[in-house]
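Subject: Interface between my chains keeps coming out wrong

I've been trying for a while to get a sensible model of this assembly. When I model each chain on its own everything looks fine, but I need the whole thing in one frame so I can look at the contacts. Pasting all components below, labels as-is. Any help appreciated, I'm running out of ideas.
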Amino acid sequence: MKGQEINTTPLARAWWKEAVVYQVYPRSFQDSNGDGVGDLRGLINRLDYIQRLGVSVVWLNPIYGSPNDDNGYDISDYRAIMAEMGTMEDFDELLAKMHDRGLKLVMDLVVNHTSDEHPWFVQARSSRDNPYRDFYIWWPEEKGVPPRRWSYFDVDGSAWAWDERTRSYYLHYFSVKQPDLNWDNPAVRREVYDLMRFWFDKGIDGFRMDVIGFISKDMSFPELPEKYRGNYPHYYAHGPRLHEYLHEMNREVLSQYDCFTVGEGAGVVIEDALLFVEEERKELQMFFSFELVDAMKAAVARGERLDIPSFKRIWSQWIEVFAERGWGSVYLGNHDFARMVSVWGDDSPEFRDRSTKALLMLLLTSRATPFVYYGDEIGMTNVNFISEGQFRDIESINAIKRFKKQNPSADELAAFVRAQGRTSRDNARTPMQWNGEQYGGFSEVTPWIEVNSNTDTLNVEVQEQNPDSTLHFFRALTMLRREQLALIYGDYAPLRPEHSQLFLYRRTLGVESFIIILNLSREPLEMTFTAEEFPGLGEVVLSNVRGQESLIAETGLTIEPFEATVIRAPLE
Ligand code: TEU
Ligand code: CA
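Reply #2:
Try treating it as a single job with all components included. I did that and got this:
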């Protein structure tokens, strides 16, 4: 077996750098057996569609044994397939059929925590002297009140849950049904490495590692340092033994396989970026930065949108930090945020397609491995739930419960629920819109979560028939990226970083050079290139508004709202 490729420079070619990753949320992709829940057989039936997108890797959200408190991010059996998803035979068939098509499969690795229904936790909570007790993190009552820790999903906000039988608290950064594992226990790490080998030996191609930055806990339990106040993921991602564990995982498992690794980097600051991915450190290949989505959420909380210069600054920093060492990843949507076009583009009928194309172009012309979330290739939008009963996500449901504890008036509650509806993760979890039927072609029966009513006009079938559709544009982008290594490895040079509408940059590799023009706003603008920026004539390679024509640098151009154009830029 070939060892994991460790390259000495970011210019060294590797399949995982050249990959375009398509993320599938399996509950919502395709139901095959009429129970309203997406499943593996449904995914198998859609592999031709995925292959035709021109992507090369599929990342599948968790499909393991789970009581589904957090849709599979609470695992009770790491070596089983959840009943709703199908069987291990289905999984084996899926993997074989993907490999037949040249598609690679990346699975979710959720090992910061387990389900409280995992046998380890059932054992651990049965008595204080159970051999599995140290698999988790306990605070016995004799030690008094545990120091404050925040939970993402808890109704009361605390990450400590009381366990009556053993008269102790256990730690859970996420829901009470997601107790955190104790990575300081070598037996825990051995178990994790074993289960990773189990899946690699089945032939999977890699892991996306859920909140992997949180695995090392600060066992001295200091009070939260002042600089992390109100910003607890940054604290959680700085555990004292984090890099020791990642390095060990690499040595024990990852280095034995030719695999793909991307860690979820919630709370990782740019100063620490290289610690995770610098080649010689032998930890991970890539991780997801949260700086941009954190800035977006902060802006939304102020009732604003993130301004374009800030967007560009954060985006560019996270590209440039890997200019010499390591490698980056880019994404604008996944199962944890509202829909890409609703958040970063404009989902009105006028600009939906055009702005989706612009965002897809940004992803696929970036110097990083792009991750595209299912449905974003057709511009699926937020669903905007307005009543409590529509929500399925534990985060939204518990946020509403928490709000209700303040005894709000009916109007206040309705406003809170509507606001939740705009930001909820459920927006990104509605069924894939295959056609204009009642359930969008996802299922024959009422699905586990409502289908967006715009499936009557916004769906794959309609877009297949329209050569100008977002779907066709996405296919053109994946093809362009495959053909032009400059778009993958080429030097990245942002132009006019302060411009309030335009995202303009150049990608150059050897004699190949491209300029990417993205208007991220609803307003048109006039622009001229300076001779330094753009000498001579350039041909339009791909555009969401222009046909193939020549552009003359010295001439002023009108850039349309949400225009996205790649120009081949001759070097002087
Ligand atoms: O997410 C962890 C994370 O840091 C956030 O994305 C967080 O869940 C989100 O911002 C809340 O709005 C990972 C998974 O991607 C997420 O689906 C799980 O719920 C979570 O871990 C727990 O496993
Ligand atoms: Ca099903």
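Reply #3:
Confirming on my end. Confidence is low (pLDDT under 50) at residues 1-8.
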